[in-house]
Amino acid sequence: MPVINRIAEFHDEIAAWRQDLHAHPEILYEVVRTAGMVEQKLREFGVDQIVTGLGQTGVVGIINGRSNTSGRTIGLRADMDALPVTEKTGKLYASTIAGKMHACGHDGHTAMLLGAAKYLAETRNFDGQVAVIFQPAEEGGAGGKAMLNDGLLEKFAIDEFYGLHNWPGMPAGHFGIRPGGIMAATDRFYIDITGQGGHAARPQTTIDPIIVAANMIVGLQSIVSRNVDPLQSAVLSVTMVEAGEADNVISRTAKITGTVRTLDLAVQDLIEQRLGDFVPQFARSFGAEASVRYARGYPVTVNAPAQTDFAAEVAREVVGSDRVDDDTPPSMGGEDFSFMLQERPGAYIFLGNGDSAELHTETYDFNDDVIPVGVTYWVRLAERALPLG
């Protein structure tokens, strides 16, 4: 089943929305203009109920089907926020706001879900309700959790959640999905090392925390390589090291900061435990002291098996079996759609963005050519999940 003709007809209109959003990026919860545009469009489409301010700046629209004998509601979610990145694409619709850019394609996600809302409000070929969810602060602000905390489930009785993200490097218009963990948990660790400072010319009178830190960074890698099952996935990366203020002084303290990415709760627990055991003992072997604080971030994004099979089936209907990978490799990036999937079953799918720049880079741009495929996927998913009569 190819792209829906009616959706192809307003491809250019949706692309214009997307490019307008791209030119006016907003970050985290500050998506005031974006949320206002979403609300305005939903009203123009005749969406039955619109709620704003959920999770500070989130917007939810409820579209009623021709009937509601099923009593079911499915949630389709798009993220709205941009990143604190200076754009260097040179596009005519490039960011007009210094230091802010849609470097992850959330402008495309928002525009495609708006296109789906327009079509669904016109046709209403389903039984039940569709909740179109426009979320702020995916990029590190846990906007999905904020919307849940503000009563997303209680207000709209959502039975299943579905999400979509564009994917550079995957052929344009192809889909990738898998059951289980598809995006990683995103944890952080903070290590404080205390030694004994002194003159750089007399290191024998000191306990050098920089030496401790340098050796500890190497040792930390053994937590994954020698504790985690090789058939499991885990990443431990040191990303910041801070110590010292002068070139002739050995500092008293040093700090190590990093991230841990896992796809399995047991592996996540193991790494947190091993960090807690390893860090102070390792420091003591140098005569220093050290403590570690482990902060859990976004959980693993876990696709439910039944909903994953269903989403893959819908994708195959839209683009053909040869363009859907239902065992796509997971990503060690994070996604706060994970909070919604902790509350209700659902599925998160990748939509190929083609041979574009990588996400979160200054030259990335969403591929407008994939808009009709993404919108058709949303529409068919809603109609198939809530079939008429």
Short description:
This protein is of the alpha/beta class and about 400 residues long. The chain is about 35% helix and about 25% strand.
Report on the architecture of this protein:
The model has no long low-confidence stretch (mean pLDDT 97). Helix 4 (106-123) links the parallel strand 3 (73-79) and strand 4 (129-135). The chain is elongated and about 80 Å long. The chain has helices spanning 5-9, 11-23, 32-45, 106-123, 143-149, 152-156, 209-227, 265-284, 305-319, 337-343, 371-385; strands at residues 49-54, 58-64, 73-79, 129-135, 160-168, 175-176, 180-183, 185-194, 198-199, 234-243, 249-250, 253-262, 289-295, 301-303, 324-325, 346-354. 35% of the residues lie in helices and 25% in strands. The protein is α/β, with parallel strands linked by helices and 389 residues long. The chain has two domains: 5-183 and 300-385, 3-Layer(aba) Sandwich (Aminopeptidase); 185-295, Alpha-Beta Plaits (2-Layer Sandwich). The strands form four sheets. An eight-stranded mixed β-sheet has the order 1-2-4-3-5-16-6-15, sandwiched between helices. Strands 10-12-8-13 form a four-stranded antiparallel β-sheet, with helices on one face. A two-stranded antiparallel sheet has the order 7-14.
